[in-house]
Fold:
Amino acid sequence: MLFSVLLMVACESTTITSDPTCAIELPTLSTTTAAPGESIVLTTTPLTEVWDTVVTVGSLTAEIVEVDRSTCDDCDDCRDTGGCASCGECDACTTACDTCVETLTFIVPDLAAGEWPVELVNRHGRSESVLLTVSGAAEAP
Structure:
């Protein structure tokens, strides 16, 4: 009984905060044709971290190898000091953010040959889908 009361109190006092939902730009792919097992670089903004990002190709989840925002430090610092949101336009930071390029590398999952939609979801929202043509099976090394 005491556990139930403590659980109710803990649940009632918990608040969850998150960044506002953003419009994720239409992704571009480093190639529009790839075989299962090949790496593709997806470019879009805003990206977050590997652990809170999902890329789907068709109905399958792709393995994310890396999220690279290494050119975005000046932009992030400007947004922090300027009180800007983590996504969207920030007039005070236009110059600092012009050099920011955000990329994500993923592995094409084991899909049959054909055209498949690629979508990205992270804490900011969901991208529109772009098409990837999956060619024959990956070649053995």
Q: What stands out?
A: The first helix runs from residue 2 to 13. Residues 1-20 have pLDDT under 50 and may be disordered.
